[in-house]
Protein: Ubiquinone/menaquinone biosynthesis C-methylase UbiE
Amino acid sequence: MTRSRTADGSAGDADYGRIGGHYADYRRPDARIAAAIVEALATAQSVVNIGAGAGSYEPADRSVTAVEPSASMRAQRPSHLPPAVDAVAEELPFADASFDAAMTTFSVHQWPDLAAGLREMRRVATGPVVILTCDPALLDRFWLAEYAPEVIATEARRYPTPDAIAEHLGGHTTVRVVPIPLDCTDGFNEAYYGRPEMLLDPAARKSCSAWSFVAPDRAAAYTEALRTALDDGSWDRRYGHLRTQPTYDGSLVLVVNTPERRAG
Structure:
């Protein structure tokens, strides 16, 4: 089954040829989040990274094969990383059991056919499937829901629940919340929980794909509401304690699936 793709090659619901130009600058992997992923990969030495983007979170101590449909994102991969394979999650061009593990970060919500993509990850990996994603049920706890409700609603609509992910993978699945550091270098919306001024930066917002689904006039109104709250001090009166809170437990979760072991 061939998936519809943009001119850039993006195969999900966001056009990264239009919004992905600054991802390598604003969506830099955070070492503490990366450590959680490496721990989940356990002893796997060969890893396929699905929806690899600009190469965030690819472990340097493993043999990694990256898969990324967007030409814009492939072009932003640093020179020390191998080129990414141009393919989509639902149709991986690899034989069964080709890798020790499969991983994907901030990608499953983009896939037109979640079930097919997850089945493909499980098919090509003999060991863990590791998924960094957001739990839509936890998004409302973030203060941005007050200032930009449609952005949070968009994210909640797009992200699959951990239960849905587990159902399609079979085997055994664990889910844990990943603490977000105050100085997180990966600029997804919640990464700015204690640095709200960053979301006044147009490039920072553009690097969070949910903003691209909001009409420009609505997004401008949301941004102005946040700017006003920062200028008049109302944001700090309500949320100022977050400016010094070392970590934040938001919607970021790590879903780790291991296959069923056959008897005999």
The first helix runs from residue 16 to 19. Residues 1-11, 15-20 have pLDDT under 50 and may be disordered.
